[in-house]
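quick one, two chains, predict together pls
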Amino acid sequence: MKKQKVVLLGKGRVGKTSIFKRFLQNEFHDNEVTTIQPQYLEKQVKVNTEKVTLSIWDTAGQERFRGLNPLFYRNSKAAIMVYDITDQESLDSLEDWLAELKNQVGHKIVLMIVGNKSDLKKKRQVSIEDAENLAKKVGAQHFCVSAKTGENIDEMFHELAKRVMKFVKENKTPLNTTKSRRNFALVNEDVETKKKKKKNNDGCC
Amino acid sequence: MKLFYFQKCSQRKLQKVRLKRISLQVDNFFQELPSIHLLVTQINKWGFSKKRLLRLNRYGILNILLTQKQTRTKSKAQTKLRTKEDLLLGQINFSFSYDQISQVILLDSQTFQLNYTNRGSTIYRHDYAIPLAQEITCRCEVWNSRYMSLVQFTKTTVLSLLFTNYSQNQQNQKIETNKNKNEYSKKGGSIINKKENKLQAEIMNENTENVTKMKKDFSSLNDQWFEVSVLEKNVEEILSKSNTKQRTQISTKKKNLQTTTNCNGNGNGNKNRNRIAPKTKNENKQNQNQNSQQKTENSQDQDNKTKNEKLSNSVQDTNLKNEKKNFQEETEGEKKKTENFKIRKEKKNQIRNQQENSNQEKKNQELKNKHCKGNNLLNKKNIESNLNFERHFKIFKFFSCTYAIAFERGSINGFMIKSIVDQIIFNQQNQIYDKIDYFFANFSKICSQKDLLFKNINNFLRALRIKILLKYEKTLNILPTIDHTQEEIIKFIRNVVEKRTERVVILPIYKKLFDFLRKINKKEQALIDMGIINNSKHFSQRGAGIVQELISVSRWKIPICHLKKLNYAILPSEQLKIISETGDLIIETVKDEGLNRKLLNADNFIYIFYYILIKSHVSSLESRINIIENLSPEKQLNVKDGFYFTSVCAAVSLIKEQFLVKKDIVQNSNNIKSDINHKYPEQKLKQDKDGKKEKR
């Protein structure tokens, strides 16, 4: 199978990089604060007998670069939305991220909502019910994960790979001759826009 | 005696044969050809429907010409067939009437009509073939880039026939007939010539019965083919003329001697003798005296020929004797010289052979070593040499009319792209640029928006690539047999073809697109470029926003140098490669300098790119990004290269923020100040008011 693009999204200092580092390199840096090195990694995941290569992109968390996120989303098959269970704002901000994502990519994407830092149960501010309700709304799956201890991380990525496989198989379009011919067709401007332009031009004083 | 026959053949075969047949002079060949009427009777067997033009080539190749002109009106397309008279062979009326046309021609004519009644892709089929004897007729309208209009273009088509030798087997089968012909040829004529004469006379008298009989006789000689006899003498003469340069001096001298014996003592003979004579003093003097005597005699002999003939003959005899002696001496001296020369040559050849052998042995050893290592480079080189990309594609022709008309309608389909492929590839490289100019002019007309333009070009390029590959795969049979498996060869060829299409065909398109985008974003890009150039000197790492722990001592010199290559790269794939390589270099420098790797996050990475971009002076960044974003392959964008590219995009957005916004503000403020300070003249105010009133 092809490499499937997966995007990690979420507020700054939520622990995106530490999650995928735990998964890909089995490393964890305790003092890591919004650090990402390397920012792009690939790994093969076995699902039953088949293999999927996930190419995981970590995005910039700063609000300054939020306008550039569409570039990151493009052609992505799955998105992991990460929030901090000790920070209520991080879950609230996910709704904005989701709205942006759906604007850019549409509904054709596998979504996972992941609550990080599950080892800090005493400091918990976000209830599991809220998170699961949001996941149901969006059609995503919810996971509670700890990058520090490695709890649920492999399972979460395994589930993601499964869902991506399904998604790819379902959305495989057969090569129709008619479609390929249509692709060669020259894309014209809409007739209405042309008419509007004409009207605007004619309507000078 | 040689036999020739007519054969239908293709243009390519003709070209090959022409080269072989150049040595054969055809001036004599024409004389020995049979009369036109016989030719016509033979050609009529092929059954043409209309009048055709016959012409014989210099090389003995018979062409049947057909000129076709087609005019296209607003309502429908019309075709007109025109024939011309030939001076050499005359116009030929063929016996078939329109009703008696073969079914194949009828079918073709019907399809042709259908094609022109329908509207769509099939109307403008650029060529249609009448199956008779590889005859091709075509309609052309060429786009003239200078006048920006379509120009009508008529094309002559050729049906070609060849005079070729019989094979040996055929000759053996017809030895008996040849014997008879030889007998006639010795007497000064042939069976065929006699028959021709008879035929001519009978045709003139319109004795139809006799003509049919003769035709039957003629056809019985050699089934369908027409025979032509050529005398051996003529061929020998031609060969002798062609090989004069290769002959030795001695043979020429012998010839001269023979000619002098036959001639009556003209001045030319003396001149030759002077050249040949040896350089001994006594003999020279004698010769000079003799020559002077001869000259004086020749001048006197003009009045009284009879008296002087005897004298001149006596002088000639003496001269000849002297010459014979001289020639014998000369030959002996020359023999010695030649012997010495031969010995020297042999020695030289031996040395050369030794050197060559040693070189060959070395080469063979190298080759063996390479094979042992398992490198298949040699085989690959062989394949590459055989893949004459342009040569294979030149076979196809292009007709731009379809392409132009379809553009006017705003519809591209598979067929049109095929024609474009032909157009772009099969012409010379210089002509490609004109076509691409036209291509972009049309695109810019249709696509006023940038997104539309990119969509169209993306579709166009994708179709181009596919079509080129498909067309090239058809020519795979030409390849030689090599030890590789077929799959390996096909893979290799695909790679080669893809690379070459990128370089030869698609590169100029990208260049044009790049220029086109530059024009669109002229103001913005100029501002950005100016900003980069002005601020690059005093631009610090901290100013870029890089964290103090990631500030490098070398100031990212290596990645900056590498990123400068972007200025020379045009293909989006190349540009992406350069960007990804610079990304890797950044990580390497972080490792080498022992900087804090943990802090190299996505945000800081963008700031580093921002610093490097400003320092590397990459021009017209926005148009480059536009091209990469829209036209690079999706595979590349989804992998590591794509990731680095996104970070570059972020860096460019930062640059835009810095230079564009500031400049705009400064410019606006300047404009406002100038407006305030500017005193508007009263006359102009009045004029403006009057103008507005008139408009209303």
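The first strand of chain A starts at residue 3 and ends at 10.
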